[in-house]
Amino acid sequence: MKKVRQRKRDIVDSFRSGGETRTQSAGVDILMGEAHFIDSKKLSVKMNDDSIRAVTAEHIFINTGERPSIPQLAGLESIPAEHRLDSTTIQELDEVPLSLLVLGGGYIGLEFGQLFRRLGSQVTIVQRSSQLLPREDPDIAASMLDILREDGIKVHLSTTAVSISPPPAGSDAMRLVIRVPDGTEQTISGSHLLSAAGRTPNTDMLNLQAAGISIKPSAHVEVNERLETSVPGIWALGDVKGPPAFTHISYDDFRIIQRNVLEPHLPPLTTKDRIVPYVCYTDPQMGHVGLHEYEARKQFPNRKIQTAKMPMAYVARALETDESRGLMKAVVDGETGEILGFTCLGLEGGELMSVVQMAMMGNVPWQRLRDAVWAHPSLAESLNNLWGFLE
Hints:
This protein is of the alpha/beta class. 26% of the residues lie in helices and 25% in strands. The chain has helices at 2-25, 107-119, 138-150, 247-262, 293-299, 316-320, 349-361, 366-371, 382-385; strands spanning 33-39, 42-47, 52-56, 60-62, 66-68, 84-85, 99-103, 122-126, 154-156, 160-165, 174-179, 185-190, 192-195, 199-201, 234-236, 277-280, 285-290, 305-311, 327-333, 339-346. The strands form six sheets. A five-stranded parallel beta sheet has the order 6-13-7-8-9. Strands 16-17-20-19-18 form a five-stranded antiparallel beta sheet, with helices on both faces. It has a three-stranded antiparallel beta sheet with strand order 1-2-3, with no helix packed on it. A hairpin with a 2-residue loop joins β1 and β2 (42-47). The longest helix is centred in the N-terminal third of the chain and has 24 residues, at 2-25. The termini are far apart. The model has no long low-confidence stretch (mean pLDDT 96).
């Protein structure tokens, strides 16, 4: 586990140092510290050496991100810090937990839960919602549930964590009281607790009110389609402005702002109708782009929405590599052939999703994918057969 941790540290250090070097080489001064607004043009920065610096600018870009939320769970503070984990601290473990309790059945909880199950931990996931991955269609979530249970992970759905207590004398397992769907309470145990049920925007320390910057009820920075805040000359990008909270969305936010600020003579870019892809890096992966079925039916009540679902067990490449769990699902306009959304829970699901994303970006109808000549045996070849399940 120490080798795993060191590899992670080396990769992070490489990315960070490379970014810092390129930024400084471009003539940018980097101040290491914590800043807050004095007014709409001025910031006060408490440097890491505890000195204070004041900086002013005509253009200010807020990109402070989010941090793991601390769950409201009775008794949490009684648990030793080294056994009370979040998505950051779990990556600093130097040994595999004997048993891991995971609060939250979203992407972070599933990725780390499955990882540590593969490393040898006994893993239990406690999910408040009635399904894992609440953003996904129920059929995709159900298939993911089957995969995780097949891997030996215990999953409690529609279940609330009530309280937690330290290990009793002679034991190394903390006790977590949960309320199950029938309203009764049960006690489960584990050596470590991972809190993976939400993230909090890093805005509380910024003193945004001093600059007159509006925020959402969630405390994220309010922005328009051009990523402009309520104050001229101040923009927000990345997770701090709210979902979708993905690294690649932050990259695209930068593209939008760069164009609009540095090339004002060109037509402005916006986030409107941005096609959003993402991947949950479980094994197998779950890649998604565009609208889910429930979103498409809600957004377009007057359009003929159709879906095509095919098990990965029907994909030759998946069978040949002995990973045929999961399914793929497309959501289309039955009259125009427009592809509205696509999900692949299966072998290299993110890569196959990206193929369909390219078609969506080019306004290629599903019929063109059905009739294309794909290399055999490739995962993309499944796009010949998927449409035979359209309904």
